[in-house]
Amino acid sequence: MAKTTPNRAPRMRGREGNRVLHALAFAFLTILALVELLPFLWMFLSGFKSTREMLLDPFAMPKVWLLENYFTAWRAGVSRYFANSIFTTVASTILCVAVCSMAAYPLARFRFRLNRAILMYVLSGMMLAPMVSLIPLYKILSFLGLYDTRLALIVPYVAFRIPFSTFLIWSHFVTIPKEIEEAAIIDGCSSLRVLLRVLLPLSRPMLATTALLCARYVWNEMMFALCFIETTAIKTIPVGLLALKGQESGEWSILVAGLALSTIPIVILYLIFQKQLVRGMMMGSVKG
Q: Does residue 219 surpass a pLDDT of 90?
């Protein structure tokens, strides 16, 4: 009997169709990335122009590259605001990740009567808009003597990031097999050591994602920084750029240079931890 050869045409057409889809997806994502990057590119290039050149021909390359704009913005106070934002962001992020990890662990691994009720109570904080709490927070901070201090920003920032950050870490903790935790307990680990030695190392991508999202929120937040801080020496970069606008009235190129400098830390963080961020975002989508 003659051997029958399998029909490879449908398979080949399927592969060609996948290649076309991949090419279209790549082209779409490339265009999307360019659209996202163009404002940043314009901002950095405009920082090298004079104000007249930036206003008359905003989309042209600088005729004379004025690096002095960046030095002027830095000397005008951006350096001080930069340092204040770094301190506030680092302190808030570390405290937020630590508190949320310790809150998510018992909610994810222990079973007790009010487990779900406490979890829902924590998550309900995501429904509270920050601007609604301005007046109560002002009263509380003034009563505690924290108004116009660094803690006046750090404490509210951590408080408003706890619900979402706890949810992210909790959603990953519940996917970790209990057998790993039980093996650690048999070896003599306490609950705290299980958290520190087992769960947290296994959750590095999710912790990195939580830290990045918290750092971005704190770095860009302006409302609390504007309402709870009066002393210039401890103002953060968003409020500092407003002050720079007043100091360099009419010098828009210097203000744009200050804006460009303010974006550098978050961009660097995303470039360094982009793999951890992608892995953290993908965690939980596929189980097993």
A: yes
Give the structural domain span for 153.
84-248
- Predicted pLDDT of residue 282: 66
Backbone angles phi, psi at 283, to 5 degrees: -65, 135
92 burial via Cβ count (<10 Å: 0-12, 13-18, 19+): buried
* Three-state DSSP class for residue 286: strand
The residues facing 286 across adjacent strands are: 283
The reply to whether 255 falls in a domain is no
Say which CATH number the domain at 174 has: 1.10.3720.10
CA dist., res. 81 & res. 240, Å (int) = 6
Phi first, then psi: what are they for 104, rounded to 5°?
Answer: -75, -30
Which residues touch 103 (CB under 8 Å, ≥6 apart)? 122, 162, 166
In a domain, 162, yes or no: yes
Count of domains for the chain = 1
Q: Rounded to two decimals, what is the model's pTM?
A: 0.82
Considering only the C-alpha atoms of the chain, give the largest distance between any 2 of them, rounded to a whole number of Å.
95
d(CA 165, CA 171) in angstroms, rounded, equals 10
Residue 16 lies in a domain: no
